[in-house]
Amino acid sequence: MAQPDLNLLITLDVLLEEGSVTRAGQRLALSPSAMSRALARLRRATGDPLLVRAGRGLVPTPRALELRDRVRGVVQEAREVLRPAARPDLATVDRAFALRASDGFVEQFGPALVAAVGAQAPGVRLWFLRKADKDTAPLREGSVDLETGVIEDAPPPDVLNAPLFTDRFIAVVRPEHPLAEGPLTTARYAAARHVHVSRRGLVDGLVDEALRPTGHHRHVVAAVDGFGVALALVRAADLVATVPARHTAAMRQGMAALELPFRAPEVTVSLLWHARLDTDPVHRWLRARVIDVCRAG
User: Fold this and answer.
1) What is the DSSP letter of 230?
2) Could you tell me if 99 and 119 are in contact, meaning their C-beta atoms sit under 8 angstroms apart?
3) Distances (CA, A) of 23 to 37, 48, 64, 68, 110
4) Is the dihedral of CA 166, 170, 173, 174 positive or negative?
5) In terms of Cα–Cα distance, which of 11, 292, 272 is closest to 148?
6) Taking Cα atoms as reference points, which of 250, 231, 255 lies closest to residue 177?
7) In the predicted model, is pLDDT for residue 145 greater than 80?
8) pLDDT digits (tens, 9 = 90+) for 123-132
9) For residues 61 and 49, is the Cβ–Cβ distance under 8 A?
10) Mean pLDDT over residues 82-98, rounded?
């Protein structure tokens, strides 16, 4: 079955409003002959003459009068569908968003983000998920709306991103640790007992790569998969955790933070989302709040 030409609805709407082939053609930028052909197609499609001559003008048939309001409503609704989304009324938005973040992100930035979101959109709820891997499948599948992390390899073209902040690594010990007293040298740092943070276990990371040119190697005695767990161990024992400063600021309160005696590695933490949500007005607003909070914190 042949599909109807929906463009004819716009033509019919203008014809019924103007009651004149000439004036309708002028509004639609069609020549009189093209407009006449369009009217002929409308007559075939509806099985009705629609407009008939009465003296020097045209008058609508009963069928045309019946269709006029319905056609106007359909055309207006179609225009609304094809118009860019209106700016949302944040006070009435009722949505939940899942944000998957690396260890420490929620502790550091979560309170300010929840407050900023609640101040403008009290009906928006945030579901914070701990990031256990770098797989972007949850963004594609829609189980995650936003994600933060360090981009090591170029993401797929359908995953978009924006930088949030740059973080540098520092050494953290409990106040009673020997390294908390006196100058921290590379030799003292390397000889201490270290907790290594890695989701892949006991393998070298950015800190080890930065340390290597000095000729020293860390004495790693434990490996964990998150900054929070590493800092918990450090609070209870004479261990050293080398962690990103901004990411862990809230988790390491009361502990001694030491500048590394060699060039500290830096990482850029980014915000990631799927392309299908890029133009969603509420998602765009939420992304802006995350960026504001992270760059201000």
Assistant:
1) H
2) no
3) 15, 21, 18, 17, 60
4) negative
5) 272
6) 255
7) yes
8) 999 999 988 7
9) yes
10) 86
Residue type at position 275:
A
Question: Which of 261-276 are b and which e, b meaning 16 or more Cβ less than 10 Å from the residue's Cβ?
Answer: bbebbebebbbbbbee
Beta carbons within 8 Å of 159's beta carbon, 6+ residues apart: 136, 139, 140, 272, 273, 274, 275
3-state secondary structure of 152: coil
Q: 3-class SS at 198?
A: coil
The dihedral of CA 145, 150, 154, 160: what is its sign?
positive
Contact 64, 51 (CB under 8 A): yes
**Two structure tokens written together for 279:** 């133009």
0.85 cut: is pTM over it?
Answer: no
Place of tokens 């003008």: 57
Give the CA distances from residue 203 to residues 100, 224, 244, in Å, rounded to whole numbers and listed in that order: 24, 11, 18
d(C-alpha 108, C-alpha 84), whole Å: 36
What amino acid is encoded at 39 in this protein? Answer: L
Give pLDDT tens digits for 146-186.
999 988 888 889 999 999 999 999 999 999 999 999 899 99
Check residue 158 and give its pLDDT.
93
Q: What is the DSSP letter of 276?
A: G
The 3-state DSSP composition of the chain as helix, strand, coil percent (nearest 5) reads 45, 25, 35
Q: Among residues 138, 87, 103, 92, which one has the least CA distance to residue 288?
A: 87
What the block records as the tokens of 283 is: 């998602």
Q: Which of 160, 157, 127, 169 is nearest to 144 (CA)?
A: 127
Between 220 and 202, where is the model more confident? 220
In 3D space, the residue among 239, 241, 265 whose CA is nearest the CA of residue 103 turns out to be: 241
Q: Could you give the maximum distance between any two Cα atoms of the chain, in Å?
A: 106
Token pair for 222: 């434990």
Give phi and psi for 293, each to the nearest 5. -65, -45
| 69: its two tokens | 């309001």
